[in-house]
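Researcher: We plan to redesign the surface later, but first we want a full-length starting point. Tokens attached.
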């Protein structure tokens, strides 16, 4: 995963305990199954299409989101004057938002009435996924979306450099429009890595799960990299036991292989980019 997406992912995860939809504006629904790479989310199938049953909660109470990076993003919101030189592109009398970024990967997210929905029976879901994985029906690069935060209207801006920025017309000055209004639009922008401004409700943040194996997951090496493994394998990359889990197999035995024998697969929450399945990393 490239540096910009990696930085954004960590920042949003640490601020909101969920993951950003990439690219912003990409459709993402509960029960979707797909892959995630530098190009963003790509849906492959759904739990329903795979015949996997699941339950969904009723959803939480909607709340407004007004969030930005801890540093690297200066946000100013005020009523725009006619031909306002600071809020270029904002209609006079509307609420304008000016954002000045000072580093790559900094973000601003504003959204109305965001509600969280999640799959509730994750243990039963995990069992069904593992059963299909062992039968080679579930691909190891697949991710299942188990939680979504949906809201709108919404604005998402992501900095592409050290001197990027944008001006957004948040809409007519009525109660609550200081977050974002239905008639919001982009006034001006420069140096953004990504932006999304929309009036419709959509998925803004998500959480998901995937198959994790001790033999091929990056997560295992990162978790164990400071401590020699008890099974004789050096997390730093040196094969101490004669068996190479990376796939070169100098010892003549590849525990990962092309099947699932010896993998000890499990289902884990995706928290950071290093948790992504191998085919979804670069």
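Model: Full-length starting sequence:
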């Amino acid at each position: 995963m490239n540096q910009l997406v990696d930085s954004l992912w960590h920042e949003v995860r640490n601020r909101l305990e969920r993951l950003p939809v990439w690219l912003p504006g990409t459709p993402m629904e509960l029960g979707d199954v797909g892959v995630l790479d530098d190009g963003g989310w790509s849906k492959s199938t759904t739990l329903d299409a795979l015949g996997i049953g699941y339950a969904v909660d009723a959803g939480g109470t909607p709340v407004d989101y007004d969030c930005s990076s801890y540093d690297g993003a200066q946000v100013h919101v005020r009523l725009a004057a006619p031909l306002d030189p600071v809020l270029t592109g904002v209609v006079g009398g509307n609420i304008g938002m000016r954002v000045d970024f000072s580093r790559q990967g900094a973000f601003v997210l504003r959204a109305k009435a965001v509600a969280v929905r999640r799959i509730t029976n994750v243990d039963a879901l995990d069992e069904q996924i593992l059963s299909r994985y062992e039968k080679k029906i579930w691909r190891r690069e697949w991710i299942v979306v188990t939680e979504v935060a949906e809201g709108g209207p919404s604005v998402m801006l992501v900095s592409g450099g050290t001197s990027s920025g944008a001006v957004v017309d948040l809409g007519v000055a009525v109660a609550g429009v200081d977050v974002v209004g239905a008639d919001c639009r982009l006034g001006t922008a420069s140096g953004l890595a990504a932006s999304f401004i929309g009036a419709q409700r959509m998925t803004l943040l998500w959480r998901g799960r995937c198959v994790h194996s001790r033999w091929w997951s990056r997560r295992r090496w990162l978790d164990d990299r400071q401590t020699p493994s008890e099974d004789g394998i050096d997390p730093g990359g040196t094969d101490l036991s004669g068996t190479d889990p990376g796939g070169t197999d100098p010892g003549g035995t590849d525990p990962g292989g092309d099947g699932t024998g010896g993998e000890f697969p499990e289902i884990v929450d995706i928290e950071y980019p290093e948790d992504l399945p191998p085919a979804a990393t670069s």
